[in-house]
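Input sequence (76 aa), recorded before submission:
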Amino acid sequence: MFDNIEWLWKTWGSGDGDCPSIMKVDGGYVLVGKNLDSGTIEQVAAVGRANNSGIGADETAVFLPADVIDRLRELG
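Predicted structure, token format:
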């Protein structure tokens, strides 16, 4: 699907493998995070719907530690 995938970083203090992380791809980023349980996904979807968004049939929601996203600010 992507021609170029560049690994950027993982969450601080994590071990080898199985770590929330972020990768840069053509036109955006791929986020690797922890799966949410169905109740939490419904909560996230409800907040999205209340803001004219939501989770589409071909989308999912994952949890990422704040430091993974906060590092994007350092790129700016």
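Checked by second reader. The beta strands are 5-10, 21-25, 28-32, 34-35, 62-63.
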